[in-house]
Write a structure and sequence with these properties.
The structure is a homodimer of 159-residue chains. Chain A has helices spanning 26-34, 36-39, 128-135, 139-156; strands at 5-8, 15-22, 49-55, 62-69, 72-84, 88-95, 102-113, 116-124. Chain A has 159 residues and is an alpha+beta fold. An 8-stranded antiparallel beta sheet of chain A has the order 1-2-8-7-6-5-4-3, with helices on one face.
Chain lengths: 159, 159
């Protein structure tokens, strides 16, 4: 089963909000975000290959990965401020195609009971222009694809 | 000599901008921000004692410190995304008195020539309320004091 993804681009504020529910327990959703062997099976658009250069998602850790679409490569990197079920995941995010434009991403995990979880994403950009650039980059498709792939992963494996 | 500090709290945007010039070369200003033995001599309000628990200001590093005012303690921590003269210093910032409210701070260093440097600070908060809380926290005094103390440090030592 697939749940809807709500993406909000607030007028005049440099935020992107993404809310999504999953039919899986909070521990499984958290592990799917932090274990690189799981992450690479769902993060990003369908048809892209993800390769992880570094994935150390714990407070004080850092990450770097590439999404490959044929010969095209899209590299991303950041550092991790928080990573726990209680505090959520708070990390910086930089697309290396626009070096120096760094945003801050927060993902809170809400235990809805009955083995269900709500993920509340809140990203903060350094300027409205940077936020608009991200919103217009096709990220909506990537988020929807990624979360559908995460549904499939959570249904398939006992994470 | 002390230069003016310009602090801008833009209406309706969750930013704080701080611009300050220093009569010192960019290398010295950068070292004063990254060497813990120098940092603890200028960061924060006059009359506070700063003690560093962790200060690893390099990409992928992290920091934690306390400002002490008598028996009162104010702890801060974050992780470092960038730290170089070219890219500036980009790091997360959390006041442990409000745990979970994480902002992203960027400090760019402009070489003005003739041994002078402009520091351009741009902080981004997760909500307007968090920005307003910081703006009303007395941080202006802390910034002005800190930068005057940095002037004194830069004049005194060959950093």
């Amino acid at each position: 089963m697939t749940n809807p993804t709500t993406i909000t681009i607030p007028e005049g504020l440099p935020f992107i909000e993404i809310v999504r529910e999953f039919d899986a327990p909070v521990e499984a959703v958290f592990r799917a975000h932090t274990d690189p062997e799981l992450v690479k099976n769902w993060l990003g658009p369908r048809g892209y290959e993800m390769e992880i250069d570094r994935w150390d998602v714990r407070p004080g850790g850092s990450y770097r990965y590439v999404h490959r679409d044929g010969d095209d490569e899209y590299w991303f990197n950041g550092v991790v401020h928080s990573a726990s079920i209680e505090s959520g995941i708070v990390q910086t995010f930089e697309f290396e195609g626009f070096p120096g434009v760094v945003s801050l991403e927060s993902q809170k995990l809400e235990d809805l009971g009955n083995g269900r979880t709500r993920v509340i994403g809140h990203s903060v950009y350094p300027t409205l222009e940077a936020r608009d650039g991200m919103a217009e980059s096709g990220m909506e498709q990537g988020v929807n694809d990624g979360y559908e792939r995460l549904d499939e992963l959570l249904a398939k494996v006992s994470v």
